[in-house]
Amino acid sequence: MKKSEEAAGRSFGGTWSFALGALALLGLAWLLPASGLMNLYLQQVLMYVGINIILTLSLNLVNGYMGEFSVGHAGFMAVGAYVAAVLTVAVFPRAWGPVLFPVALILGGLAAALAGLVVAFPSFRTRGDYLAIVTLAFNMIVKSILENINAVGGPRGYMGMAKLCNLAWVVFWVLATLLVLRNLIYSNLGRGIIAIREDELAANLVSVNTPRLKIYAFCLSAFFAGVAGGLYAHLLQFINPRSFSILKSTDMLVMVYLGGIGSLAGSILGASLYTILMELLRPLELWRWVVGPLLLVLLMIFRPTGIMGLKEARWLKPRDS
Amino acid sequence: MSFPVALVLQYLLNALQLGSVYALIALGYSMVYGILTMINFAHGDIFMVGAYLAMWATLFLLGLPLNLPTIFIFLGSLLFTMTVTAVLGVSIERLAYRPLRQAPKVSAVITALGVGLFLENFTLATIGPEPRQVPAIFPVQQYSWGGVAFTNIQVLILVVSFILMVLLDTLVRRTLTGMAMRAISYNRVIVPLMGVSVDHIISLTFAIGSAIAGAGGLLYGLAYPVLDPYMGIRIGWWAFIAAVVGGIGNIRGAVLGGYVLGAVEIFTPVLLASSTYRDSVAFSMLLILLIFKPTGLLGRPTVEKV
User: Is B297 inside a domain boundary?
Assistant: First the structure.
């Protein structure tokens, strides 16, 4: 009895400081650009960092915590980006854009979550390499379909979005993703997801409903990838099927494995480091695309568990674990 | 809907030509998977490097003031391309994959993706993004037989890839080395106890797989003479699907899958009257196949042991 009460009332290390920190961050994200203290370039880079953090966190849920191997996450991002973009451009009244922007993002995310089912169902039967192929095929199919829909510009891409994405929104969604994933992972559902990674058969035997958890995990992961896609579309104001190719998916994989699988703090670190590093390497021009993959290979050889190596930052863990 | 027979044969011939190239690349995917159960995502880019090497070799040989017979130029380029891609494949295995052989399989797959990106971008950074033209070794000659038109290049591609496939199949099925390869894919723990050097055989597998992809690069360059650093991505993925469709790890399956994918690519635009859907068709086919026959057309089902 005592034990379960404790479990029910389990709190995270410093829930209050998390909440305060979140509010402070949001405040800063709104104040700094508004007051002109932060130049546009820095804002832009920080927004990319934020979007990449959301993508990395979402991919980490599937690849890191559930132990599946998705190599097609850019497909979910594409669905979210296109749905959100079409909503703000063609469906919602233009004047209402800033107000309805979160609605567009959420609907984009939901559309991506629906697409997540496409991958979740085959994952009941196939695992490992073959599931990787399914996710890859999904990515390619999404890209190919988008290239064939003339209403959204086909291969030429889609534009006309207002620049609705700002730093405060990005920070808000980063915090939301972090909060949802943290609470999920340390819940019973989350333990089930980790059990699938450790041994799917054994998880089944202790009555973990693995198909249901796979649906949850894939859809939630796809949802956040879709939201990130929506943010990306309204930051760049131009999207094109090619920007959601397998190369984008590979970028996400690099960030997840750079930070370390199965670690939320790792994802934040990996996404931030990779994005900033690529930005710093910009003077190298073409060669930076050589350095990036090389770093990945070296990382895999010398530290295959990533920077955090399955460890978690204390403020992201429940107090009793 | 009825097609004239000659037209169908014509498309079939084109499908065979493209399918041969896919099959040659698919073989490398399949061999490496068979022996290491690892998807070598860098394989498509080895094909790309092979195509560039073939271009340089041909340019060099054509530029020599010796007036070599065309067949020597072709064979010389083939030999050079296959040797260098073999060395490249073995080096990649040595430097990038071998240190990870005991690591979780995902690390090796990520590394392979990284190596592939590295090859693409390295080529892009050193050679530049503009497409390169492969010089013609042979003057193209058109033949016609019963209403079906074909060129000497098509014949050459079919014949050379057929010879390579037969050689490889014989090697794997009839020689001691081939037996060692099959044994390693069957059980990698016991085989070293029988006095087989696993490292040696794995290196050999990478050498052969890469050399065949290099040959594929040369043949592709003859038929579709425009090269760019990212050509390995699309063709590599298609060849990879071919390997999976045929049953990855299975040599004959890879060849079958290659021809199936060649047919998909040639016949989709004909049947749907639009060429932009071919990727969707190929990948949807792959998904449906994996649902009903998860180990491919010729693959054996594996039993997961508890």
Answer: no
